[in-house]
Amino acid sequence: PYYVDMNQNLFLQASLHSSDQDLTVFVDTCVASPNSSDFRTLVYELTKSGCASDSTYALFPPPRSDVARFGFNAFSFVNRFPSVFLQCELVVCRYQDYSSRCYRGCVSRFKRNADS
């Protein structure tokens, strides 16, 4: 466990460990839950499809292409939950493949009218 105070800035880093040096990593979706084994019932979205859902969520420049850095302000679910657990989905792409998901960034999906 990692202990932080409310509203303290929390910084995270994800690293890709591979012998292939031609890969990059991208944070796609991160959700928080008060239950480490249930990320569907009561969740808080930090980011979805590469788009920030939380106003304090931020991406930071990585030192290398195989590293993703991000952060947000620490929060809690209502007082009856003492812990917050994170689950993040990352995407791995070929480095400098600008048509890949890693380079498109935020992908917001719009619903279309069934008539169109």
From TrEMBL:
Residues 1-109 form the ZP domain. PROSITE patterns: ZP_2 (PS51034). It comes from the Eukaryota. The keyword Iron-sulfur does not apply. Pfam families: Zona_pellucida. Keywords: Disulfide bond, Signal. This is DMBT1 protein. It comes from Cnemophilus loriae. The lineage of its organism: Eukaryota, Metazoa, Chordata, Craniata, Vertebrata.
